Write the structure tokens for this entry.
Amino acid sequence: MDKRPLGKSGLEVSAIGLGCMGLSSAYGIAPDKSAGVDLIRAAADRGVTFFDTAEIYGPFINEELVGEALRPLRDQVVIATKFGFRIGNGNQVPGLDSRPAHIREVAEASLRRLGIETIDLLYQHRVDPDVPIEDVAGAVADLIAQGKVRYFGLSEPGAVTIRRAHAVQPVAAIQSEYSLWTRDPENNGILDICEELGIGFVPFSPLGRGFLTGAMSGATMFEEGDMRAGLPRFTPDAMAKNQALVDVLASTAQEKGATTAQIAIAWLLHQRPWIVPIPGTTKLHRLEENLGAANIPLSETDLAGIGDAAAAIEIVGARYTEAMQATVGR
């Protein structure tokens, strides 16, 4: 697979990465650990070098899974993980914690679980309003100086926060949701500031948490533990109305001999040369389908047609609950 630079940071990764969260949590019953290890290694075998995890996924067990899967391939891959949520007695508890002392504790724990000596890319998972971003960036800068972290990233920040953080410690990557049904980064200044400062952009949920694959409908039922059951965009009525966007992708997919998922990812890849989507999956055939998006050419006419048709569709339902939305864009 071709590689892409994450901005001007010097960090280069495969054009498509793998989001590993769903192998342990968030989307219903997760596969057993051995199946997760096999899938991650299958991704590496197919050219993926960029793997995304976080301490909160599980919590903890996703880092352990990623570490076990990639340890034999350590010199061939880039591992990203995140800090910032509060965890008590092995469970997520309300609130955020990006105090410098806590960042140091989390980094050490993540290194142990991953079984590595250096975290390639360490993100703040959500901006903590009680800790100045300069203090956060300074704490990560210290970890970089100590050789425990290579690069610094932010997940779901606001543009002003990015600029302030970057002034203290250069930010290599911004991670936020971005897809044809979540186009906020185009309008809230995030893509613009990434362009200006030379920062890479990593879209998570590039397939709309599975909706843009065309495999879901208003009749879809979610398993216990599937976070989508509580998101406004995944009510039966919202999914039925949002089907119009899937139809746009399906039309182009038919013309290109591709799938709707591949067109959705290919569209993202064509937006900027420093955008690296990280779709997640638990199934080998979906992994191969997603990676195939890197080989689908889209002309300027194709891109304009897809973008204009998608923009004309009013997406029904917020991407997050009010409480979750309150933690982004700070």
Q: What stands out?
A: The chain has a mean pLDDT of 97. DSSP finds twelve helices and eleven strands in the chain.
